[in-house]
Amino acid sequence: MADYDVIVIGAGPAGYVAAIRCAQLGLKTAVVDEWIGKDGKPALGGTCLNVGCIPSKALLESSEIYETVLKQGAQHGIKHKGLEPDVPQMIKRKDQVVSELTGGIAQLFKANGIQWIQGRGCLKPERVVTVTDLDGGQKDYSAKNVILATGSCPIELEAAPLTDDIIVNSSGALDWESVPKSVCVIGSGVIGLELGSVWRRLGSKVTILEAMDSFLPAVDSQIAKEGLRQFKKQGLDIKLGARMTATKVTKAGVTISYSDTDGEQSMKVDRLIVAVGRHPNSNGLAAPETELLLDERDFVHVNDQCETMVPGVYAIGDLVRGPMLAHKGSEEGVAVAELIAGQSFGMNYDCIPNVIYTHPEISWVGKTEEDLKSEAIDYSVGVFPFAASGRAKAMDDAIGMVKVITNTDTDKILGVHIIGPHSSEVVGQGVMAMEFDGTSEDMARMIFAHPTLSEALHEAALGANGRAIHIANKAKKTK
Ligand code: FAD
Ligand code: NAD
């Protein structure tokens, strides 16, 4: 008889959420995880809680408070003298937030009767999981179902091998105890922009080298263009079409060679962050005889319901296709748990919100104008600038816009794209509208509290039919 109904390998936001939902559904569940926290003890929560979403947002918050007081304090009538960042305190606060949240998951596991098995899991045939514990001892556990949720790790570049703290990946850049004078980031993706912003706000001169000619190609181009303008205005030196070719660590820091349209270039900085994407943790996850199929980029191959080619074995989160986002993995975890319990797999891949937690925040859900053009769908666009929002003005933060895109024939909302203050909170309303197959007319008829940033979403929805109240507008329509 199997030891468990379900064994989950990996306790990041995909795996731990899957385990909790399995336990709620009455399934006997164990979770195998190998993460060792900063204090040297096993920790739950994976990348997201330990070195990802949460610690980066903690430092983004601290650095934003500092910069706001520094740059806007006087305007708001807040006098300050001798203001300076206390970076060790910021790191300490960040670590406290992390340890409270990872400890919280351990409590949730206890409350739900989930067994936490510490060590590295390897899938064998017949859904046996061999766990190598922290001392090297091995033990086999069997289950009726196995959920693989081992996440991802930073991609390394041969030309920029990591050092203790001069050349680092995202994890290293979350632990610097002082502000480097100059920082270079390779990659102007989400991590490059978020961590580049943290250190720029605290006083570093930050240069970002991006190999591609385009900036944030997955983002609606109008929003991405405004983002690039804002980030450059803040002092982030973003060089597009710049490919790093070599690095040399010196006593003074690191020399970086790169090529761009002007030819070979070099720059010297104190620190370098490599942020060029993440790779799925599939290496050694399954013994060859299990015949777990990987795709050409090493993601575990799954169908629309997260089922692998091995019966009774599922895979979720960063380990499989789709955006590498915590909430995407968590919802796959819930959907797989419910599928195992005999329910249907409920996951809408067309309605996953994305957020870049810079200032202004960039948030979106659904299709961009570029998507719709390539799909030859006629669409209407309503745009409302935060410059016309009373709340954004009162906050002294009236930058960016909300853009609502609808189907011209049906009025159905196809995409919501925002650059502006706290847009991560506003985009959720777009997600809700789209999940309910909402139209811009539905949103137009809803009452939004005044004064809120959400009113800008209301106005953008009105704008898709040329009805915005607080700007003179004409809807943009493709027919
Ligand atoms: P992970 O969180 O990577 O967890 C996998 C777990 O499996 C780990 O604990 C690992 O130790 C364990 N494991 C791996 N192999 C084995 C094995 N063989 N045996 C046992 N255990 C194993 N996403 C967002 O949605 N919002 C954000 O704001 C955000 N910010 C981020 C900031 C940074 C700096 C980074 C790096 C990432 C960020 N992400 C963000 C991405 C997010 O962290 C990931 O999408 C998410 O953590 C993926 O969840 P997961 O459960 O699939 O994998
Ligand atoms: P990314 O894919 O977002 O960006 C990597 C960037 O590096 C790309 O623009 C790419 O063109 C560039 N690049 C690749 N190789 C290069 C090279 N040799 N030289 C110069 N540029 C190069 O990856 P990331 O920023 O590392 O983030 C990894 C994942 O983590 C993302 O998929 C993201 O979804 C997730 N994440 C999400 C959040 C969030 O939701 N707020 C925050 C951080 C990370």
List the helices and strands and how they pair.
Blueprint: E1 4-9, H1 13-24, E2 29-33, H2 46-51, H3 53-76, H4 87-111, E3 115-118, E4 120-124, E5 128-132, E6 138-148, E7 152-154, E8 167-168, H5 170-173, E9 182-186, H6 190-201, E10 205-209, H7 221-234, E11 237-239, E12 243-250, E13 253-260, E14 263-269, E15 271-274, E16 278-280, E17 313-315, H8 326-340, E18 354-356, E19 361-366, H9 369-374, E20 379-385, H10 390-394, E21 401-407, E22 413-420, H11 423-435, H12 440-445, H13 455-463, E23 476-477
Parallel strand pairs: 1-2, 1-6, 2-3, 6-17, 8-15, 9-10, 9-15, 10-11
Antiparallel strand pairs: 4-5, 5-6, 7-16, 12-13, 13-14, 18-19, 19-22, 20-21, 20-23, 21-22
Helix pairs in contact: 1-8, 3-4, 3-6
The protein binds flavin-adenine dinucleotide and nicotinamide-adenine-dinucleotide (NAD).
List keywords for this structure.
13 helices; 3 domains; Enolase-like, domain 1; binds nicotinamide-adenine-dinucleotide; FAD/NAD(P)-binding domain; 6-stranded antiparallel beta sheet; binds flavin-adenine dinucleotide; alpha/beta; 7-stranded mixed beta sheet; globular; 479 residues
- What number is the mean pLDDT? 97
Query: What is the fourth-level CATH superfamily of the largest domain?
Result: FAD/NAD(P)-binding domain
- What shape does the CA trace take? globular
Q: Quick one: CATH class of the largest domain?
A: Alpha Beta
Number of helices: 13
Using the coordinates shown, work out and report the CATH topology of the largest domain.
Answer: FAD/NAD(P)-binding domain
Helix share bin: 25-40%
Beginning-to-end CA distance, first to last residue? 64 Å
Ligands bound to this protein structure? flavin-adenine dinucleotide, nicotinamide-adenine-dinucleotide
User: What does the radius of gyration come to?
Assistant: 24 Å
Number of discrete domains: 3
| CATH architecture label name of the largest domain | 3-Layer(bba) Sandwich
Which class do the helix and strand fractions yield?
alpha/beta
